[in-house]
Amino acid sequence: MSVSNVSNDSELLNSRFTSTELGFLVFGLTLISFIATIANICVFIAYVKNQSLRTASNWLILSLAVADTWIGAVSINFYTVYLVYGNWPLGKIACNFWLSTDYWCSQASVVHLLVISVDRYLVIRVPLAYRSVRSNLRLKYVIFFVWFLSFVLWVPWIISYPYIAGKQDVPEDKCYIQFLTDSVFLTIFTACSAYYIPLLMMVFMYIRIYTFLQKRKRIVNRVKAPQYFSDLVVPSVSCVSVTQTNTCLEVDSIVNNKELSKTCQTVSKIKYKNYDRAKKLLILIISAYAITWFPYNVFAVISPFCSTCVTAPLWDFGYLFCYINSLVNPFCYAFGNKRFKTTFKSMFFGRNINS
User: Fold this and answer.
1) What's the 3-state SS for the chain?
2) Is the separation of the CB atoms in 87 and 174 below 8 Å?
3) CA–CA gap between residue 118 and residue 126 (Å, rounded)
4) Per-position pLDDT tens, the chain of length 355
5) Exposed e or buried b for every residue in 101-119, given b needs 16+ CB within 10 A?
6) 66 Cβ neighbours under 8 A, 6+ residues apart
7) How many CB atoms sit inside 10 A of residue 242's CB?
8) Which of 137, 172, 273, 327 is most buried, by CB atoms within 10 Å?
9) pTM of the predicted model, to two decimals?
10) Could you report the per-residue pLDDT of 229-260, keeping only the tens digit for each?
C-alpha cells in the first residue's frame, strides 16, 4: 500500500473536513482499530483456552493473527493521525517505522492467506501423502519463511532507497514510499505481487478445492444408491468425511458392502452440512480479500498513467479499505471454524466448550 498519491494534494487533508466530519472519522477509525485488535487477540485466547485448537494447522491462523493484530493496533492509528492532521507530524524515524511495519505485516497477511489456501488444498487433495511430510517443524519453517519473505520485499528498500537513489524526494511533512513515486514499473510490480498474483493463485486453489469436494460428494451419493448394495463387492471405495477442525478429508477403505453401507450412513449425517460450510467459508475468504484490497490496487495501476484520475479522497478510501481485511480475517478463518466458535461462545457467553 502507498500513501504517495495522497501527498500530491497541496491542501491539508484536515481542511477537507469539518469538525463534525473529523469527529466521525476519528471515531470510526478508532472503532475499526479496536475491533480488529480485539478480534485477533481473541484468536490467541481461544487457542490457549481450548486444547483441541492447539494443532499445527492452526499455527498459520495464529501467525496471520499476529500480522493483523499489529495492523489493527498500530498501523490504523498511525494513518489516522496522518489523515486527521493532513501532514506527517511525527518525523522521519517514525515515518520509516510505520511504513516498514505496515507494509511488512500487510504483505505477511497476504502471503499467509495464500499459504493457508495451499495448505488446505494439499490436506484435501492428497491427505495421506501431505500429512506424512507436514510435520510441526516444517510448518514452523514455512511460517518463518512467510515473515522473512515479507520483510525482504519491503523493509530494506523502504529504508535504503533514498540512499540508493542519492536523493530524498519525500517532504519532511509527508510520509510515503519514495520508490513507488519514482518508478511506474515498481508501482505496477508491487500491485501485482501484493494483490493480483496472490488473488489469482488463491482463486485457483479454492476452485480446485471446491471441484474436488463436489466430485467426492457425487461419489458418495452414487455409492449410497440402492443399486450399489446388491450382491456385488465394491473394492477400494472411499467415503468422504470432512472434519470440522481442518476442513480436511479422511479416507476409509471399504472392503465389503455391509461395511460400506454402515460407513456411508455415518458420513451422510454430517457431510452435507460440512460441505456447505466449507463452500461458504471458501467463498467468504476469497471475497473478503478480493473486495477489501481491490480499490487501492486498481487506483495503483491507474494513477501512473492518469495522475488526475484518482483523487485524494479515493486514495484515502482505498488505503483504509485494505485495513478492513485485518478486521475481517479473524471472522473468516477463526469464527467460521466450529471449534473456534464454540470457544468464543464460552469466552463471551459462559458456555461450556464441550457443549
Assistant:
1) CCCHHHHHCCCCHHHHCCHHHHHHHHHHHHHHHHHHHHHHHHHHHHHHHCHHHCCCHHHHHHHHHHHHHHHHHHHHHHHHHHHHHCCCCCHHHHHHHHHHHHHHHHHHHHHHHHHHHHHHHHHHHCHHHHHHHCCHHHHHHHHHHHHHHHHHHHHHHHHHHHHHHCCCCCCCCCCCCCHHHHCHHHHHHHHHHHHHHHHHHHHHHHHHHHHHHHHHHHHHHHHHCHHHHCCCCCCCEEEEEECCCCCCEEEEEECCHHHHHHHHHHHHHHHHHHHHHHHHHHHHHHHHHHHHHHHHHHHHHHCCCCCCCCCHHHHHHHHHHHHHHHHHHHHHHHCCCHHHHHHHHHHHHCCCCCC
2) yes
3) 12
4) 544 444 444 344 456 677 888 888 899 999 999 999 999 999 899 888 888 888 877 888 899 999 999 999 999 999 999 988 888 999 999 999 999 999 999 999 999 989 988 888 887 788 778 877 777 778 889 999 999 999 999 999 999 988 888 888 888 888 988 888 887 888 888 889 889 999 999 999 888 888 887 777 777 666 554 443 334 333 333 444 433 334 333 334 444 444 545 555 454 445 545 555 656 666 777 888 899 999 999 998 888 888 788 888 888 889 899 999 999 988 886 666 777 878 888 887 776 665 4
5) bbbbbbbbbbbbbbbbbeb
6) none
7) 22
8) 327
9) 0.79
10) 334 333 333 444 433 334 333 334 444 444 54
CA gap 237, 252 in Å, rounded: 8
Single-letter residue type at 22: L
Name the amino acid, one letter, at 335. F
Three cell numbers, residue 306:
492518469
Q: Is the dihedral angle over the CA atoms 341, 344, 345, 346 positive or is it negative?
A: positive
Cα 115 to Cα 123: distance, rounded to the nearest angstrom: 12
Cβ-contact 317, 295 below 8 angstroms: yes
